[in-house]
């Protein structure tokens, strides 16, 4: 069986692109286009044009557009989980919840395009890809739910349903990416502080 990359026309690459056009650059371009226009509206030809190659050259780096979408979501969620794992935690459930809140705001505000795709393009994933991405999402949700359960057990939080509270808190925190602008009147740190106050009240801490 021939490797697909062996069949790619050498002329498909623009001058100097062999060393310059890499997987990360391709993914950055696709992420930008998906966030701006929506996955369904973006063609492989548009992605190729964005990075300066012909369409055939893309398949040296990705299997297809669906695989590219799944890869973008997977990379975002894996980075999210790794970053949270390395994040310092506060003391007790209340400190952990504050750490989670501030971390979530900070991490997501730095990656608005990746966040938009990870949440808004789930509907465009094939079933097998959806299952993998959903598993990663649930791992992150479980991190928060474990904090809420610990706080509930310790009598620090008053919550009738930790699962529902988990989904509500994450939805509220993630929503900041839809409206926040660096040129606005609130700094990122101030926004994180205000959201922490709202989260604390939401769990009746």
* Helix proportion: 55-70%
* Percent of residues in beta strands: under 5%
- The secondary-structure class comes to mainly alpha
- Helix-strand sequence: HHHHHHHHHH
Which spans of ≥5 residues are poorly predicted at pLDDT below 50? 1-19
What separation lies between the terminal Cα atoms?
Answer: 62 Å
Instruction: Name the shape in a single word.
Output: elongated
CATH-defined architecture of the largest domain: Orthogonal Bundle
The CATH class of the largest domain is: Mainly Alpha
Number of helices: 10
The multimeric state of the shown protein is single chain
- The CATH homologous superfamily of the largest domain is termed Tetracycline Repressor, domain 2
Count all strands and give the number.
0
Pfam families: TetR_C_24, TetR_N
DNA-binding region: 43-62
Region (Disordered): 1-22
Domain HTH tetR-type: 20-80
TL;DR of this structure?
By secondary structure, this protein is mostly helical. Helix content is 65%, strand content 0%.
